[in-house]
Amino acid sequence: MDINNEMIDKLADLAKLEFTAEEKEKLKGDLSKITGFIEKLNELNTDHVEPLIFMTNEVNVLRADEVHHPITKEEALKNAPAKDSDYFHVPKFIEK
Amino acid sequence: MSIDYNKYEAVIGLEVHAQMLNKSKAFCSDAVEYGASPNTLVSPISLGHPGTLPVHNKEAVKNAVKLGIACGCDIAEHNYYARKNYFYADLPKGYQISQHNTPICENGHIDIKLKDGSKKRVGLIRIHMEEDTGKSMHDQDVFDTLIDYNRAGTALIEMVSHPEMHTGEEAYQFLTEVRKLVRYLGICDGNMEEGSMRCDANVSVRLHGAQEFGVKVEVKNMNSIRNVQRAIDHEIKRQIEAIENGEKIYQETRTFEATKGITIVMRTKEGASDYRYFPEPDLPPLRITQHFIDEVKHLMPQLPKALFAKFTNEYGLSEYDAGVLTESREVAEYFEAILQHTNNTKAAANWVMVQVKGYLNENAIDINDFVLKPAQIAEIILLIDEGKISNSVATQNVFGELINQPEKTALQIAEALNLIQESNSDELQQWIDAAVAKFPEKVIEYKGGKVSLVGLFMGEVMKLSKGKADPKVASQMVKDTLDRA
Predict the structure, then answer these.
(1) Which residues pair with B135 in a beta bridge?
(2) ∠ CA B201-B202-B207, rounded to 5°
(3) Distance, CA of B130 to CA of B109 (rounded, Å)
(4) pLDDT band (50, 70, 90) for residue A94
(5) CB-neighbour burial class of residue A50 (10 A; exposed 0-12, middle 13-18, buried 19+)
(6) What DSSP assignment string belongs to B256-296?
(7) Is B297 domain-assigned?
(8) Looking at beta carbons, which residues of chain B come within 8 Å of A59?
(9) Boundary (domain end) residue, out of B416, B440, B475
(10) Is residue A66, in this structure, part of any structural domain at all?
(11) pLDDT tens for residues A33-48?
(12) Which of A50, A75, B127, B316 is the most buried (most CB within 10 A)?
């Protein structure tokens, strides 16, 4: 697949990331390699092959409506890069 | 230039999100609780940590099936989950687990009644299961947005109507019916103020008779059913005025400002959103069997529509009375419980609608917390029917006093307050004779043909008996006495 600037910009927008022109060039190369690797699969004829979504044949794996709390608030917040004693902090994104 | 608003037809479709009243979340066992201390109802699954595995809550599936049955939907046998990908801080996984291609319910309808008495059936496109996001707080900190993930992962149902409504009132009635239904089913508390039920409205306008839809605007953030109606009515007017003024309608999302009663732009849609849906590989498919559907059906209470039909057909109540009595499941059940003890359906209906509901409204009490048992209301009705107490004494004295002393019977209260009507004819005759003796000239007038004077004598009898004379028996006796005089 030909990775162009437009695609890079769209992916960047969806991921809320910003890249310099230099980084974009590098990404173009990397993404071309990745998609090229996946495109190898197109060589196979899959016309009559059902897509495989699940690794098992299980259906209806359901649980009872019961409450368990495996972690505390302190543990929940432990790995957050920005926080106070109650909340996760993220950059302000006002969209009222 | 004046605008002819009637030239235009509005087209409205609603999306309703209902938070399920389960104990735990959709895909993990965190508790579901409104107003809990922030970030205490979370787990590695709801926080989207790597390596965790969601498992679907069986009750959430049952709830969706219940609503589907109640709305006459087709229930899908094969269900798959999908990931709806978007990047937002209140969505820790970076995707929402939803149903994309296989909604659990399709088709179906909601029947509504409008103020002018007309009825309308609004079709449903789908009902599907998904999960809620966390909550963002933008104004509690100067520099950062704060996130509380307690709500993240709570089971939601999304109901999407066909764009078949044309006025704010129709939307209002649609939501009222949906709220009634989810409350009857016990699957959602339907509280729009707290956000456990939310509604987005898609509104467009076009000239009457036009084939094509106008440009669709999505209106959000209405925290009551009344505000949904206000927002839609305002939005219709705004769009018509814009078109008449030669302006363009943009496909955008607008938010409702309740204090001003207007909608304002929230975000413009630049092309379709790209959610990159793909099958959720962590959740095995869900197969809804007929056996499962039958099981769920068995758990369902009587629905308002069926109760309405029963109340009007079997009990002979008016449509108005049946409507009031089926507004909530609790009231309908209370009414039906009274009928276990009395056959006087009309009196039971009146007592529930006037006395009981009046008392509950005045004192802001929920019917579940009402101290009087349905059997006690039935007993009051029986006392009236037997002529032991008058209707006015029952409503003005016995009912209130019984609420103060709910452990007593209505008869005990009436006796203690000396309110038992006298229908003993010896006793009554004494009062009647006294009344007749008091107004000899009126007796002559009565004899002369002024029969309306019976009322005067009855008034005197009631006065002498301190309201205890049984009016039915007494008035006949007054007439007999006067005729003999």
Answers:
(1) B148
(2) 130
(3) 20
(4) low
(5) exposed
(6) EETTTTEEEEEEE--S------EE-TTS--EE--HHHHHHH
(7) no
(8) 284-287
(9) B416
(10) no
(11) 999 999 998 899 989 9
(12) B127
Residue A71 domain flag = no
Q: Look at residue B429 in the predicted model and tell me its pLDDT.
A: 87
Is-contact B383 B393, C-beta < 8 A? no
Mean pLDDT of all residues in chain B?
A: 92
Cβ–Cβ under 8 Å, residues B23 and A29: no
Rounded to whole angstroms, how far apart are CA atoms B286 and B76?
A: 10
* Residue B231 sits in the same domain as residue B280: yes
Q: How many domains does chain A have?
A: 1
What is the structure's pLDDT at B270?
A: 58
| pLDDT interval class at B330 (50, 70, 90) | very high
Tell me: do B63 and B83 sit in the same domain: yes
Are both B158 and B284 inside the same structural domain?
yes
At B308, the amino acid letter reads F
When CB atoms are compared, the residue of A65, A82, A91 closest to B24 is A65
Structure-block tokens of residue B423: 């229908």
Same domain, B273 and B137: yes
Strand partners, B96: B84
For A66, the closest of B29, B60, B266 (CB atoms) is: B29
> Does the structure show a pLDDT above 70 at B269?
no
Q: Which residues on chain B are in Cβ contact (under 8 Å) with A71?
A: 42-44
Closest chain A residue to the Cα of B268, Cα to Cα: A95
A15 touches B: beta carbon within 8 Å: yes
CATH code: domain of residue A32: 1.10.20
In a domain, B356, yes or no: yes
Interface of B with A in 31-60 (CB under 8 A): 31, 37-44, 47, 55-60
B1 confidence band (pLDDT: 50, 70, 90) = low
What pLDDT is stored for residue B139 in this prediction? 87
Residue B37 covered by a domain = yes
- pLDDT band for B468, please (50, 70, 90 cuts): confident
B279 and B327 co-located in one domain = no
Of B382, B416, B450, the residue at which a domain comes to its end is B416
Instruction: Work out how many domains chain B is built from and give that number.
Output: 3
Q: In this model, does residue B297 exceed pLDDT 80?
A: yes
| CB-based contact, B293 to chain A, within 8 Å | no
More confidently predicted of A4 and B235:
B235
CB of B276 within 8 A of CB of B249?
Answer: no
Who has greater pLDDT, B339 or B431? B339
B67 found inside a domain? yes
Domain that holds residue A28: 5-43
Residue B422 has pLDDT above 90, yes or no: no
What does the pLDDT average to over B366-381? 94
Supply the range of the domain harboring residue B446. Answer: 425-484
